[in-house]
Amino acid sequence: MSDFNALLTEKAAITAYDFDPDATTTVDVAWVDMRDYSRLTVMFFRTVGTGDATLSIIGNSESNGGGSDVPIKTKDLTGVQPNATGDYTFIEVSEDEVVAASESGARYLSANVSLATSTDEGVVVYIRHGAKYPQSGLTSDNIA
User: Fold this and answer.
1) For the residues of 70-126, what is the DSSP string, one character each?
2) What's the CA gap between 130 and 94, in Å, rounded?
């Protein structure tokens, strides 16, 4: 089967996170292992509030973010704030950008988001793609 005909769920791991930090400080959304992927795309989708947001991707050598954080990329939201319910914005990094920003290429990445108002909320979607080993089940349902 050619890579072109593979299903998206065989080439990418897609996960969504409820983002309700109850704070105005910058928060790591979730650390993900990038060893088997070449790109990370992150979407922030506004669900509650109208305050400004910041969005970046950081790297770390520890799976829980316990090591030293390395800034990989920041999205400039000047004049284009996702400040209404239903607004969304994307940021994407490649394996090459991660290696260039971190000495040995940070293996674990996280979106780093802050909201100007502590009652604001959103959903953060991660798309780890460019799977080095495409296979069934990279993306699956998560139903509690």
Assistant:
1) EEEEEE--TT----STT-EEEEEEEHHHHHHHSTT--SEEEEEEEESSTT-EEEEEE
2) 9
Phi, psi of 99 (to 5 degrees): -65, -40
Both structure tokens of 106: 């940070």
DSSP code at position 128: E
CATH topology of domain 19-129: Jelly Rolls (2.60.120)
Distance CA(40)–CA(130), nearest Å, equals 9
Q: Supply 3's token pair.
A: 């890579």
Write out the chain's pLDDT in tens, 144 residues. Answer: 455 667 888 899 999 999 999 999 999 999 999 999 999 999 999 999 999 999 999 999 999 999 999 999 999 999 999 999 999 999 999 999 999 998 877 999 999 999 999 999 999 999 999 999 888 888 888 888
